[in-house]
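Per reviewer request, we include the raw input and output of the structure prediction for the construct analysed in the revised manuscript.
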Amino acid sequence: MHPNILKIQNNIAPLRQQIINHKVYSAISDLEDLQTFMEHHIYAVWDFMSLLKALQINLTCTTLPWFPVGDAVTRQLINEIVAGEESDVDADGEIKSHFELYLEAMVQCGANVKPINQFLLSLQKGRDFDMAFELAQVPPSARAFVDSTFKTIKSGKAHLQAASFTFGREDLIPNMFFSMVNDLNSNQPDQVSIFKYYLERHIEVDGDHHSHLALAMTEKLCEKDESFWAEAEEATIEALKKRVDLWDAAYAEIVGRKVLA
């Protein structure tokens, strides 16, 4: 493995552990807690897809007429990841993006999908992000998370996008969260089975095969440019800090509801 990959991994290890060991996971004990968590997390699931598509736009030809763009290896890497994320299969073998699968999991468990649907509808109608956030009443932490991601996207720098995608999004779900979801599914399979499948699929595809592809892509994009590596680490740290903030907000809402109950 490239020494700069190892350097970034070492430098971000404390932040990753802060996310993996976050108190939000132990706070989730019932279906209502899970609903609150998902209502925050869905924005990260959505802008993950946007980050992915930004990479595909940067690294491949997405306009007409077609011309070979960039390095063939990075084209192959990003196209394979896109295919898996945008056109995976659900538990019944039907083709869906991971975002659509997560949305179905929210519906099944009774989470409120109106805000995320309103947010996307506003964007599709041409409204800017600030207006879309307001109309959908998106939580402030989710707004900050999306804004940070789109700052990276709008930079137009593929190495920053790749670093945020690679180090800021994968392998951040602790085993205790899986145990909690399994327990909920055992008691309420009609409401948690899709989310359980989503998590299993996330680890199987995103956390294993795609993570290796993403590491290779990031290494290829940064290569011998030390300034690229430094920028990549900075972008990664920013993405992880925003994740902590998002989890803090979800935790505060979950605990706050229980205090008021």
